[in-house]
Structure formats: C-alpha cells, structure tokens
Amino acid sequence: MYSKNDVAPFPPMGWNSYDYYNTIVTEEDVRRNADYMASHLKEHGWEYVVVDIQWSDPNAGSTCPQIQYVPFTHFCLDEYSRQIPAENRFPSSKGGKGFKPLADYIHNLGLKFGIHIMRGVPRYAAHTHMSVMGTDLTADKIANPFSVSKWNGDMYGLLTDTEAHLKGAGAYYDSIFALYAEWGVDFVKVDDICNTNMYPNDPYSAQKEIELISEAIEKCGRPMVLSLSPGPAVIEKAWHLEQHANMWRITDDFWDKWELLRAMFERCEVWQNHVGGGSWPDCDMIPLNLLSKGFGAERNTNFTRAEERTMFTLWSIFRSPLILGTELPLLDEESLALITNDEVLALNRHSHGAVQVRRNEEECVWQSFGDGCPARGQALFLALFNLSETERDISVDLKKIRGIKEKNTYTPRNLWKKEDLFPVQGNALLSFTVAPHDALLLKLN
Known about the structure:
Layout: H1 4-7, E1 13-16, H2 18-21, H3 27-41, E2 48-51, H4 100-108, E3 112-118, E4 121-122, H5 123-127, H6 139-142, E5 143-144, E6 155-158, H7 163-183, E7 187-191, H8 203-220, E8 225-228, H9 238-244, E9 247-249, H10 258-271, E10 280-282, E11 290-291, E12 299-300, H11 305-318, E13 322-324, H12 333-339, H13 342-350, E14 352-359, E15 363-370, E16 379-386, E17 392-397, E18 409-410, E19 412-414, E20 419-420, E21 424-425, E22 429-434, E23 439-444
Parallel strand pairs: 1-2, 1-13, 2-3, 3-7, 7-8, 8-9, 9-10
Antiparallel strand pairs: 4-6, 5-6, 11-12, 14-15, 15-16, 16-23, 17-22, 18-21, 19-20, 19-23
C-alpha cells in the first residue's frame, strides 16, 4: 500500500487543457501537447498531461460560447454508470479501451496522464436506473437529487447520510477508480468538491465524498495524485484536506486579471503554514501566452511580462503546483524561458518554510529556505513584489530576516536574470528598484 504523501513529494508540474480548450479538447490536441512537453519541458520537471472537463460528452462545445455546458447532455457511459471517453473526440478509446491507449502513449513519452471528473454520478445514469458495479444497486439509489453543482448540471452528488448510503457511494467511487487504474491514470482532478462553503445545507456531504474518493484511490492499487477543485478551500478544513488530498484549490477559477493575481498574495498568506509533506495548496492554473480557443476566440493573455513574472514568482516561492493553461506548441520564446528557468523551478521543488514577511497596498516581500553551499548551510530566498502602479524602491533589512547571520557575507543572485550581484553583509539594508506589477527573486548564499 502506498502513502498519499509518496505520490506527490513535490508540487505537481504539468499541463491542463481547460484554459485553452474549455470543453472541446480532442485526443489529437492532447497528443500534440504531450509531444511538446516531452521534447521541450520534461527535462525541466514538467510531467503531467491532464484532460479537463466534459471528455465523455460527444456534444461538448456545441452550445458555446453562449452556454458552456450542454444542458441535459448524455455522456458516454459503460453499463455500470461510469463515464468513458467520447469516441468522436478520443478515437483510440473505441472498443471499450477507454483512455488506456492515450495513457500508454503519454507514458511512452516518459510523462504522466490525468483526467478531470465532477463529484458524484451522472444524472442520466440515475434517471435511467443504470447499474452500480459490484452491487445490486442502481444509480438512482446512490444519487442525491438535491445535490447538483451550481455551475454544471451533469451530476448528482452521492448520498452519504447513513451507513447504507456511504456503502453505496463508496462502491461507486471504488468502481470508477478501479477503471481509472486499468486505464493507467496518474492524476485525477475532482471538481465541485473543494469549497465546502458551497454546500450550506449539508457541509459534510462533500467532506465525506472526499474521504470516499481518497479511500477508492488507495484501494485501486495505482498511485494517483488527488486534486480538488474549485476553491476557495476553507482554511478551517485544512486538517481534512491534508489527510485526504494532494492538491486543493485556494481560489476560484484564476484568470489573467491583475486584480485576481493581487488577491493571491492574501490567499497564499492564509495557507502558508499548510504547504509540504505531499500536500499542496493550489493557486490554480497558469494562464500565460495563448488562451480561450474553446471559449469562442483564441487570444493572448492579458498579463504583461512583468505580471507573468510576478505570478510565476509567487507560485514558485509559495510552492503551489505549477499547471500550465495554454497551447504548449504555440508558446513564444519569452514564455518558454519563463517556465524553463531551472533555478526558479528548483525553488518551487526543493525549498521550504516560505512565509510572507510583509505586505501593504504597494509592495510585498516573501522569504523561504533551500539548498545552499555545503560549507555555509541552507540558502535563503527573497521575493520582492511591486504591487503598485509606479516604479518603486523596495527595501529589505537583512537583520530582520529569519535565518540571516549578521556577521556572514552573502552574494545575492537574481534568479530571473541568472546574475550574481554585489556581496553584502548580513546586517545590510538591501534596496532594489522594481517596475510596477513586477517581481525580483533573489537567492542569498
């Protein structure tokens, strides 16, 4: 039996289809992005290829952009109420093969394969009284008809209020994760489950479903990263999330708007003491370069280069999972350089103890620790963020930074420019000019 913490010892890094394709991604699209990752990103630690929402809907996208999810659509299902890929979009799934051929293709590239699901059972399966594997129950007997997502009407949540209902719900989750294990799935993003405040009438229902999903992954015999969406997750439930999941969203859907990026500083501050040990508070996907083809019109991200640097710096020092939301083969050179800076990625992968040092309306400073010179011990990282609309000088009194020794001499290194700066004493006052909405990332060794 594997431990949950063994599955994701570092924040997962990969690509998700949603930000670019919305609901319409196809097998050809997934393979193309996987090929690019294997050729250009794998050596830098990027490994997960994740197919997001509506992969079992043959009609996905037919009502976009007016309506995102086709109302009362009929998913492709097997005889046991389990979603299977739509063959018109994933042709290698024909003949009952499911996602196994696509997962095999991705594994042969040295990468890992993931899928998105909504919590619960398809409403169509409940309405037509389809079977539940391993039981004499039908889908209508495990479905809670009063538990439907506010933004996607495809599924019913599962009944969990009695021991009999828990047993039935558990049997269904066991059956779908057994199927995913057969396919070779390595990562499952479960949606409509993370923010328990979304269920004021029954806040424990989603919590119980998380437990059943976690148990089903353990039973299926294949290690899988469990990612929970959407947020914001409830900080009071951190203890529960740390027990049962590897990733959980600390925000609602994150898009390329400065006000959303600015708000992430407070969200990261709230969650800074719950990072590590196989559990990773998730700042959501990284919307850079090209976005939104499946939403009606392909477009460039609204983030400036400075804002992209700020986003990637915060995600990295906080140690959020790094999940790209774009069309990888169309990455421009600057975006590619941003996401393949190995010194910054090492901060995300190997640092520890990240905390917000200070924040006000104009600026923010974070620090963390990581591998350093063996003779001098661990290195210290400082991230300086200009949140204002004008260029400003941001100062850091090293005497007030945890881990600094005043008598030592340090050489700050600018990780984005890959340049060593001037030596400084541990009692120095550092000051740097930072452009508006930009970030400076330093390693002191």
